[in-house]
């Protein structure tokens, strides 16, 4: 697996402009490195023109990035134009690595990539920590991270002038449950793991790591998948909503290339968008939520497969459902039609509020897409006819089960490219 290649979208755009000298320099380092990652190799003059930075500033920033081992200079190239020949700069993706850990109820799935997005390590570590304590899970994650460091290329060998030892610069933990976009990146609640109170998971993992520590982020796993699907889009887009069905219905929102979590970490939870106010009660306290009509349990029950789900599991129920759908079994077709109508109502509401270009259906919804799509398209036809320029597109997810790790790796990679000061300078002997 390799993450989607870097794009020119706003996803890599930094936040508000800093107002102190140190922060401005860090931001400018990111401007230069991101340009080289997306458009290099290229000479300093091109970097200056593209970033709006003065040529002298670019020279100083390039020296800093070279000291950190993040860029290299090619031999002089003559373009045929007048003036001094240029020495193209390029990203050295092997200097730093990023890691992603997907936390599931049974496993810790790990992937490690370089700064070009090339994945060079995968692992799946089983655990029996769900339900369990956050501290035990943090210890398990820290152990995986510590092991990951030993698997970096060149870790066991001596550092040389030609091959400086890479560093693990950032790790992203993708966790089921809403995560606040605050300094602590608090997991608000994680029922699948028995965590019914807020958990400062990042701090717990950091405390369990041996020094030196790696910078850690915690994000919602569906948001990671949404970010991956956004970057996998075949055309330019500013916004995406992911609606996916697994054990229930979750999702994520990407606006202007950034994960949008809302005030309490629960933005992008389409399963609890009400689509029928006189519908059945939902565990969230509302009535008629999308999950009550399009969630796996509701769909399997309506198709006559409730017993299969409860006795043989979701995979067996899904296999039977697909077989019945291909045979045009009336109960199965009706179940999908009901789900499609509910999804249509949710999509119309969500897109009217967020004005996104894309709605991506993932998980089981992607497998059901051929039967969902006709009804959804019928319900969207009126709005499309009224405002054809909106160009709303509803499509199945393309990345499957790898979307979460791919999105988490991409999140970590863009964070390093935007703030390369996190990568320490090379030892003096390697300069």
Automatic annotation (TrEMBL):
It comes from the Bacteria. Residues 31-73 form the HTH marR-type domain. SUPFAM superfamilies: Actin-like ATPase domain, Winged helix' DNA-binding domain. Belongs to the ROK (NagC/XylR) family. This is ROK family transcriptional regulator. It comes from Nocardia tengchongensis. The lineage of its organism: Bacteria, Bacillati, Actinomycetota, Actinomycetes, Mycobacteriales.
